[in-house]
């Protein structure tokens, strides 16, 4: 049985793209580039840009997620690329900034933030940000009460969670064995 599997595996690896296919693909790409250059006038490009901008949501705010101590919400304003996460005390109704994505993305060529993980006792929030576009993230742990933010690792793999007792942070790191992103 094992030999049969190996033989099938080798047969799959023998399939390759023929050189004639590559030249056809290059020819099609060249034709497409020529079409775009000659047929997309400036006025048509401006029309497309206006249409795309009209479809963008200008101001957006999530419905507050209410937990024991705080309620959490995310807001993005008109013409901003990134928004701000807020938390509001359920006792005093005082609202404060949890994470300012707009500020963290400033002067960065790439910025992609993953989901937040808030501890069960609502003392900590864990979040990770990809600054390069290679899915290697910087993992942060922020104390909500003191607002102290700590970098846990710069080699995060995107996966993380705070334990149910709020005492441990589990996370995945990337090493040299990690394959290149697609």
Can you tell me the CATH class of the domain at 60-173?
Mainly Beta
Structure annotation, total helices: 4
Q: Tally of extended strands? A: 11
What ranges have pLDDT less than 50 throughout 5 or more consecutive residues?
A: 5-13
Main sheet, how many strands, which sense, barrel? 6 strands, antiparallel
Percent of residues in helices comes to: 25-40%
Task: Give a description of the structure.
This protein has 182 residues and is of the alpha+beta class. It has helices spanning 2-14, 19-39, 42-55, 101-105; strands at 60-61, 65-66, 70-76, 84-89, 95-100, 112-113, 117-118, 124-130, 137-143, 149-162, 169-173. It has a domain at 60-173: TolB, C-terminal domain (Neuraminidase, 6 Propeller). The strands form two sheets. Strands 6, 7, 8, 9, 10 and 11 form a six-stranded antiparallel beta sheet that branches. Strands 1, 2, 3, 4 and 5 form a five-stranded antiparallel beta sheet that branches. The protein starts with a helix and ends in a 9-residue tail after the last strand.
Task: Please summarize what this structure is.
The chain is of the alpha+beta class. It contains four helices and eleven strands.
Ordered list of secondary-structure elements with their pairings:
Elements (H helix, E strand, L loop, with lengths): L1 H13 L4 H21 L2 H14 L4 E2 L3 E2 L3 E7 L7 E6 L5 E6 H5 L6 E2 L3 E2 L5 E7 L6 E7 L5 E14 L6 E5 L9
Antiparallel strand pairs: 1-3, 2-3, 3-4, 4-5, 6-8, 7-8, 8-9, 9-10, 10-11
């Amino acid at each position: 049985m094992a030999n049969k599997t190996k033989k099938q595996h080798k047969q799959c690896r023998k399939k390759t793209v023929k050189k004639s296919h590559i030249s056809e693909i290059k020819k099609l790409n060249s034709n497409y580039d020529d079409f775009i250059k000659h047929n997309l006038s400036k006025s048509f490009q401006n029309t497309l840009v206006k249409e795309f901008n009209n479809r963008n949501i200008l101001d957006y705010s999530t419905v507050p997620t209410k937990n024991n101590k705080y309620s959490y919400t995310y807001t993005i304003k008109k013409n901003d690329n990134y928004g701000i996460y807020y938390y509001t005390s359920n006792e005093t109704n005082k609202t404060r900034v949890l994470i300012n994505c707009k500020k963290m993305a400033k002067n960065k060529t790439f910025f992609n933030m993953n989901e937040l993980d808030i501890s069960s006792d609502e003392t900590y929030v864990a979040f990770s940000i990809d600054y390069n576009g290679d899915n290697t993230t910087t993992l942060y742990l922020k104390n909500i009460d003191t607002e102290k933010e700590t970098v846990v690792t710069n080699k995060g793999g995107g996966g993380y969670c705070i334990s149910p007792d709020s005492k441990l942070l589990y996370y995945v790191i990337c090493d040299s064995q990690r394959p290149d992103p697609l």
